[in-house]
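Quiz preparation item.
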């Protein structure tokens, strides 16, 4: 059985970390950070800069605004390229001049929630959102069916794109980086 992990912000070790805001284009137009969290390709104006919303300790792997992944060059250098085939990488400047970071847009989505082991709430008729009836409204204590994801190293969950999921191989490739800034929670 393959082991997978949800990437989460490490608030315990890095309580005084910086927090990154939504990206901006070269014309300083705001880009909705959620566009880098839906598990789909991004086709608008390229992000150029990511402002720092809250000053603090620099970390190498950030879940910025709306959990948009922003990673340093060091993180990218530790990840074998084969693990990133389902990602778009957009180099950005952090704040007013910190180079060497990129937005990591994960475009692979896999329907793999283990609904028997996870706490699931779905949209229903009473919620008055007919477009969402039957879709996930909330997923707690997330577990996935690893056999459905075994050939992938990084992905979003189809229908519940909030968490970023990585394989044990992916985790192992970066977990020894100092000031990583994230933790890994098992989901299998």
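Solution:
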């Amino acid at each position: 059985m393959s082991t997978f992990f949800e990437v989460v912000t490490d608030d315990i070790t890095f309580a005084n970390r910086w927090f990154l805001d939504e990206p901006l284009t070269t014309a300083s137009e705001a880009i909705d950070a959620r566009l880098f969290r839906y598990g789909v390709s991004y086709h608008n104006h390229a992000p150029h800069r990511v402002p720092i919303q809250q000053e603090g300790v620099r970390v190498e792997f950030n879940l910025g605004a709306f959990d948009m992944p922003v990673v340093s060059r060091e993180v990218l250098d530790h990840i074998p390229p084969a693990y990133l085939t389902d990602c778009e990488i957009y180099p950005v400047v952090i704040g007013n001049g910190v180079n060497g970071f990129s937005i990591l847009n994960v475009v692979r989505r896999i329907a793999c929630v283990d609904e028997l082991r996870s706490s699931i709430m779905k949209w229903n008729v009473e919620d008055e959102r007919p477009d969402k009836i039957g879709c996930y409204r909330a997923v707690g204590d997330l577990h996935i069916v690893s056999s459905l994801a075994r050939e992938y190293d990084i992905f979003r969950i189809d229908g519940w794109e909030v968490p970023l999921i990585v394989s044990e191989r992916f985790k192992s490739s970066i977990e020894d980086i100092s000031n990583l800034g994230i933790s890994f929670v098992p989901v299998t």
